[in-house]
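Team,

Forwarding the record for the chain on the shared tracking sheet. I've put the sequence and predicted structure together so nobody has to dig through attachments.
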Amino acid sequence: MFLSRARSRRREFPRDLTSVRAARDFTSATLAEWGLADRDDDARLCVSELATNALLHGDPTGREFSVRLEADTDWLRIAVRDTGAGRPAPRAFGPDGDGGRGLALIAELADAYGFTEHTVGKTVWLAFKVGAPRGAAGVCEAEPVSEPMGEPAWERRLSDAWASAERSGAEEFVATVEKLVAELPPGSAIGLFERAAALDATGRGGLAAPLFRQALDLGLTGERRRRAVIALAGTLRDAGRAAESVELLTEELAAGSDELDDVVRAFLALALLEADRGREAVSVALGALAPHLPLYQRSLGNYARLLSPGS
């Protein structure tokens, strides 16, 4: 969902009341470092509303939420991801009410906004035009990324196809995805990715790999870009090219951070194991697991470091 090769920063926050202020402060510090303090007031207000919504609506209780900022020469984009279900919508609010302000406020302050539904949870994002005065937001207008968010119905039909994949069978599922992709512009990176993902999911990784590469070469962005890297690394590992898989995933971890970091680490651990680097594989796996445990986080984190190369 984010532009590649842009400045980006992400942080996870626990679901407690102190996190709303922490998310605001994280936003302000990042914008100051990037020289974008002119949008600080608006950004802080928007992040405060979205963080509050994440605290109230995340499910189950105890899950973290994340705030990610990204900027390039044209856009500053902020996204808050939580585990809550549902489709956010603006609501009217009065001077005496504390609730209902979230998207209504964002619509007033931001230049664009929207949301993305995930298998678990959702991401609400907003964008400010760099150097531009405050403008009226438009859902999926002045869109700073190349995802088909302007076609939410298309995305929903794609999600429905994936949800019914097991019932429909491999051939019918792939055919359905091909029909959906045919609605996109020729040479669409997203179309190539979705074709590859369907083939990969139905056991045809050899056919999927070149399509993943083409999508990446065409500038696939955001979550789909990272999923393509992960899937491509998996096909390389399955083809006996574990060293290439390790190299690809190691570079991916260094390229940026988002909610898929631990997925990248899990596939890296598998690739390391296939490459006869079992000690490193355990180190990576423990390092990914430790932050999510209710107890012994520090101990397992220390074990992970002791098992890493050079320790």
